[in-house]
Amino acid sequence: MRTRFHYLPLLLFTLLRQTRPDPDPLQDYCVADNKNEFFINGVPCINPDKASSSNFVTSALSKVGNTSNQFGFSVTATNTLNLPGLNTLGLILVRVDIAANGIVPPHSHPRASEVTTCLKGLLLVGFVDTSNRVFTQNLKPGESFVFPKGLVHFLFNRDSREPALALSGLNSQNPGAQIASLATFATTPPIPDEILKKAFQITAREVEIIRRNLGG
Ligand SMILES: *[C@@H]1O[C@H](CO)[C@@H](O)[C@H](O)[C@H]1NC(C)=O
């Protein structure tokens, strides 16, 4: 019996670690050295003596995104390439443009929670918890909504004439994103029909139609 409990502290430590965002920086900053070609967990830093103000500024989010795709949205993010100074700081900012009646389809970020602020337009946003309960909210400019880490969420521009604009902060420098529809029907290589048929309770023909519609 005793030996089983030896593992408890380790188990707790492991579980607690999993709820933490990106590791804390061990120095003031770690300006991304984008010339490196080896892979580590994150991006290596340049010599701090060589850092300059330009490493900490970007205009990446100043341009309107191109929303002419099947969903009608565009996401532009700061990252270690366009804003090398954010490396290891555990956060990014994202510009979300949504065409009239466009959506950011149901998707999740495996490594980050997200707080989004509506800057322009009328948004319907929501997320699904792990018991499939849905939380939705209409957002006007100036209002914010939070999507907890890893949970499926979506944004919809309710306005049928005007584009919408939102700004989101995420607590990882590399949140990752999986769009539910594409992660099932537009994968490389395709997920076997048999699995999609059973999972979605549809026919092979329907699998084919959805695949084609999504460009899979
Ligand atoms: C937006 O993207 C579409 C499809 O990729 C392209 O045809 C169009 O030229 C782009 N528009 C602009 C303004 O870049």
UniProtKB/TrEMBL annotation:
InterPro entries: Cupin_1, Germin, Germin_Mn-BS, RmlC-like_jellyroll, RmlC_Cupin_sf. It comes from Psophocarpus tetragonolobus (Winged bean). GO terms for molecular function: manganese ion binding. Oxalate binds at H109, E114. Pfam families: Cupin_1 (PF00190). GO terms for cellular component: apoplast; plasmodesma. Residues 59-208 form the Cupin type-1 domain. Belongs to the germin family. Gene3D superfamilies: Jelly Rolls (2.60.120.10). It comes from the Eukaryota. Residues 1-21 form the signal peptide. PROSITE patterns: GERMIN. It is found in: Secreted, Extracellular space, Apoplast. The keyword Disulfide bond applies. GO terms for biological process: plasmodesmata-mediated intercellular transport; regulation of root development. Transmembrane segments: none annotated. Its main location: secreted. Mn(2+) binds at H107, H109, E114, H153. This is Germin-like protein. Keywords: Apoplast, Disulfide bond, Glycoprotein, Manganese, Metal-binding, Secreted, Signal.
